Amino acid sequence: MSADRSLRRLIASSGPVPGRMVLGIALGAAAFGSGVALIATASWLIARASQMPPVLTLAVAVAAVRLFGIARPVLRYLERLVSHDAVLRMVAGFRAGVYERLVPLAPARLGRRHRGDVLSGLVNDVDSVGDLHLRVLEPAAIAALVSAGCVGFVAALLPSAAAVLGAGLLVAGVVAPVAGARAARRTTAELAPLRARLSAAVVDLLAGAPDLIAAGAADRTLAQIDRRDAELTRVARRAAWASGLGSGLAVLAAGASVWGSAVVAAPAVNHGRLSGVTLAVVVLLPLAAFEALSPLPGSAVLLTQIRGAARRLFGLLDEPAAVREPATPVALPPGPWPIVLRHVDARWTPAGPPVLCGLDLTLRPGDHVAITGASGSGKSTLAAVLLRFLDPEAGSTALLGGVDIRELAGRDVRRVIGCVSSDAHVFASDLRENLRLARPDAPDAELVAALRRARLGDWYASLPAGLATWLGEGGALVSGGERVRIALARVLLSGQPVLVLDEPTEGLDSATATAVIADLLEATAQRTVLLLGHRPEGLELVDRTYRLVDGQLVADRPATGSRASTDPANSLVPPTEFEPATPGLGAAK
Amino acid sequence: MSAVDRRLLQYASASRRYVAVAASIAVGSAALVVVSAFAISELVVGPFQHHASLAELRGPLIVLALAVTARAGLAWGAQVAAHRASADVKSQLRRGLLAQVVRLGPAWLAGRPTGDLAVRATYGTDAIDGYFARYLPALAAAAVVPVIVVGTVLSQDLVAGLIILGTLPLIPFFAVLIGRGTERATRRQWRTLVVLGGHFLDVVRGLPTLLLFGRADAQGDSIRRRADEHRRATMRTLRVAFLSSAALEFVGTISVALVAVSVGLRLLDGSLDLRTGLVVLILAPEAYWPIREAGAQFHASAEGVAAAESTFAVLQTPVPRPAGGVRVDVARATIRVEGVSVRYDDRPSVACPDLTVRPGEYVGVAGPSGCGKTTLLWLLLGFLTPATGRVVIDGPHGRIELADADPEHWRAQLAWVPQDPWLAPASIADNVRLGRPDAEPAAVTEALRLAHATEFVDALPDGAATLLGENGAGLSAGQRQRIAVARAFLRDAPLVLLDEATAHLDARSEAAVADAVRALARDRTVIAVAHRPALLDGSARLVHFGAAQAAV
């Protein structure tokens, strides 16, 4: 979709322009108008006073000057309050609308890697609708109204001066901002490849630092980075010439308007078409008229960014849902719920590579089964199929309690199949709410019992505010191990009889991981459990183990005493170990 | 806090030069404003009072045209200077940052997300643009323009000058007063604002979790409700926050009104002439806006400095210990590790077992993971300095502590094969040449042969000239390891450090590399860390490290 269509859609989807916004624009125009009127009446007052008329003839002008002097800041204050209020209301509605469209896309379409970054970006893009109204559309509307007012007023005094002023306003308000934004866009585009090259060199230096320093090659690499840096800086310095063009042009237009007004007004006075007093108004008014235009260069640059945000946002929202919910779902069969997968093919996008190819798996009630596989082998895809976050391809058989999973409502499937993973979200709320989302009517005693069964009893006892302890953003820090256990406590509360443990120990050190797995399997002993992981922990605790290779399951040896214990060194990890993390891991990911 | 961040001036000399440029531009602009004011008033007074024709107005018209053009040029030049300074400053900060990272070394880098650091170094400092393009020019204008303008007004009309002089200080006064109120109000609401403001992101991030428990559909209303609460809390803060700029504006506009009325009344009784009156009216607003503008751009300053904050933090990190300058001859030295413990950041310190390695010895070090094997190699590489104890180089030149040795010279005598070697995105040959960039192609081929890498390298389409992807993408772990071993052969250093050098190899290549390493060990000192037997079999001496002990 083109950027301009996205922008129009962004404007359209933020709803009709509310009355408050219009009021804000009116107040803003009145405020800047007062600023112009202050200078205009003051010029008239001074010019008229120089003719030494009776003092009473100036009384109205004196009052008007003072009035405009007060009105300008007061109206501007009101305008800012009204328009911020209006925009915050608008953003609230837009957020809710976007959220409702995100639900069918989650989680399959929200990115599988760096999902946190994708979502933060998404939220920023959503909020750019506020910027669009507050910092682009409103200032533009105000500038247009004030400019029209000024030109109209001057036209009544001297049409030729109005033409001069109008031309100046057009250059400063349209040409200069557009030129500035274009230069900024070109600079960004020109610098992008150079920055990417520099960034790659920097990543190499940081990732390879130990090897480079040991080999005495760090200085050479630094010198290479310096060359790329110099190239980037040289281009950025050259681009600076274009960056100032817009502001120079705006200043020139404003000054030229005053100059041009004087040039057309002076002969008009001599020909008697303009009085000397109004001459002062005509020449001095342009000094104030350009103030309303000052936010426009910034708005123009911002608009480019908002365009990008709109394109990203609608690009995501327009993705097809990963799951087709049945029009009339089959009722959930009564338990128990064996799971049978036959020849299951699955891929994340219709055009993407198949991740599961003819996978067969049977989970009888009470089975504890583990599947290992390298990252990217399809473990998460399998979890998504089971949780009905992803439809398997046509020709696959996926039965839950004997019913095709695709004929069941997603909600119903997830009433039976739960998931514990290391990326379980801890909400910025108190512990009680974080647990109750699994079962809204659970009494406190059951919440605490679930925490104990998830081996969070000691942690819970250490919390000063108990269940009212604030977690997540701005609250108590939750470690990786605690996060998994909170996820476990949730599924214990909601009571799904089938659990997928999706890489529950990802990111945990191996001592914690071993303890977490043992606790997970013990607490879920009565349920059907599918453990997915790439590490060997816990494999000796399940009934069967498989490896996921090329989209299919390969049975391992019987689990008793299998792989985990071959190397005692692996499990011997004292908490005080010093193992420098492999540099480069962060960069490589 | 000072108006210009001191660290910026300290770490980026280009910013010092730019401050001077911005100040000169501000002086120039102010002078042009004054000149324009006189010209404009002449253009009104001439036709009004003397019926001057355009020809008679040629003087002020030319002056105004020149002044306007010059002002536009300065406005352009100010932006050009700002963006150039910003480019220079970002470059200086970047280069300073990277040089400092190399000085701090691998021990500091370990555990830090390098990708994040790289992004910050390349893209993170962009907000500095605003600092240079908006805040500093506004600050310079605020410092210069009011002085010149008020001086001119005072020289033209004492009364108007005194009015401006009397009201001008109200601006900083109000700014501070209301600024404090805003800060209090914001602090009171901070928690509410953070929680409510982050709610949407929180819900969106938690969407998969909500779906798992069938709670996703219930959130639309809650988003609307929380956003509404957020709006109300924000508006409470904004009502106070906007007061400050409103008050500043009020001082400016009401003072202009006062000046205009005072001038008008004095024109009435003839104590002032029109030309002066107009000059004063044109100049009066110019005294106020720069200060207001500087206040308005203050957030650009905060953003700019915040962007550089993480860079400053790295630049201010003390380098553990200045490098020594003693040159030692590794080939004839005995290395002793005596009572060493290391401390990494704020983790508890870890003891490294004592060890003595004589010249030409082949020492195998074994032990469970976490016992300090890698720590030992990092100590010898100079990546870590002992918190207690010392590493002593005992040779013909006497007993030298490793910390006193010249690190470049010392490392030039080491070859290191790490557990997970890093490969540059360059050709295989260049990777082998990493420690000896001037090596002949024949020497590279020989090193690859000794490392048992010839077979797979020759099978590649371009052989040793094959370009590798990001960190050796396209090669298996074993192949990467063999390139690292070839590196060590080519390096031809008297001391070889092997860290699980055969960890990723299959049995056949492991045996081959072990043979190669034994060949390498001839005439050299080798310390080989491994917990697999192949490399340790050939060792003249095997040392077992126990589990790590926390040193208290």
Tell me what you see in this structure:
The complex is a heterodimer of chains A (589) and B (552). With 589 residues, chain A is of the alpha/beta class. Chain A is 59% helix and 9% strand. The longest helix of chain A is centred in the first third of the chain and has 49 residues, at 159-207. In chain A, the strands form 2 sheets. Chain A has a 6-stranded mixed β-sheet. Chain A has a 4-stranded antiparallel β-sheet with strand order 2-1-4-5, with helices on one face. Chain A has 19 helices and 10 strands. In chain B, α3 runs parallel beside α11 (298-315). Chain B is of the alpha/beta class and 552 residues long. In chain B, the strands form 2 sheets. In chain B, strands 1, 2, 3, 5 and 6 form a 5-stranded antiparallel β-sheet that branches. A 5-stranded parallel β-sheet of chain B has the order 7-8-9-4-10, sandwiched between helices. Classes of the chains: A alpha/beta (589), B alpha/beta (552).
Strand content of chain B: 5-15%
Oligomer: heterodimer
Major sheet of chain A: order of its strands? 6-7-8-3-9-10
Number of helices of chain B: 19
Beta-strand share of residues of chain A: 5-15%
**Largest sheet data of chain B:** 5 strands, antiparallel
Q: How many DSSP H or I helices of chain A?
A: 19
Mean of all residue-level pLDDT scores of chain B: 85
Mean pLDDT of chain A: 86
Order of H and E elements of chain B: HHHHHHHHHHHEEEEHEEHEHHHHEHEHE
Radius of gyration of chain B: 36 Å
Largest beta sheet of chain A, briefly? 6 strands, mixed
Terminal residue distance of chain A: 30 Å
**What is the helix content of chain A?**
55-70%
Q: What order do the SSEs of chain A take from the amino end to the carboxyl end, as H and E?
A: HHHHHHHHHHEEEHEEHEHHHHEHEEEHH
* Distance linking N and C termini of chain B: 41 Å
Low-confidence stretches of chain A: 559-589
Low-confidence stretches of chain B: 548-552
The greatest interface between two protein chains, and residues involved on each side, is:
A-B, 156 and 161 residues
| Silhouette of chain B | elongated
